[in-house]
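cache lookup: miss for this entity combination. No prior model stored, computing from scratch. Input as submitted by user K.M.:
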Amino acid sequence: MTTAVDDDLWSAVGDPTRRRMLDLLLSQGSGTATSLSEHLPVTRQAVAKHLAVLDRAGLVHARSAGREKQFHVDETQLARAVAQLTDVGNAWDARLRRIKTIAETIEKKRKP
Amino acid sequence: MEHGSIEREIHIDAHPDVVFDVISSPEHLREWWPDEAEYPVEPGGDGRIGFGGSWVRFTVVDASPPRHFSFRWTHAEGETAAPGNSFLVVFELEPTATGTRLKMTETGFRERGWDEAKIAAEYADHVTGWDHFLPRLPACAAKLGATR
């Protein structure tokens, strides 16, 4: 597990088109650059580049089937990505709730 | 949205002056986040925050009461806080009829390698404060939630 790989993972899930591709692959079980591009407002070539990013991050794996590679989602890796994002987000939610409570308590004391 | 950022917005029934003080002063910071906090509340103010005996670098980027407070944290000892070596937290305060709308954005995960928390959890004896701290995030959140 190197930092370079983790950078890839972070930026891979940060892109809306790639998140949409992951959704499509999850709902369809698998897909090719061609089949995915039919559901997205980008070219097959652009989809292939996005798939390469996802592949490098370990979020999808390819099987050679016929003329085109068939991609499917690595659900373990995806769960890891989601869990990390959720952890940091949850921590900030709790901090902000605490900030709200403290500030509102001070405000009430200021007003007689 | 920038890749790898966390954005939150919350409404607080308190004057922006009060909210600014709560988010920026070391005394109040200790109430909602670290165990210890030592830094001057001024642009460039350099200091540290502590979690259970481990210290993490903390540098104020901008402090413009009562509208804006931002800081960088987790940069290594001997380094100047900058994109790529730290996380940037930005608070923006907007007055409303009944109080303050507080926006928080934290960025820098992508640059840092987003999964370092995972690494730290697995190799708990890493030497930097950053590595010691991140595994505590969920516990910290739970603690804050419990005392809320």
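stored under new cache key. Chain B is about 30% helix and 35% strand.
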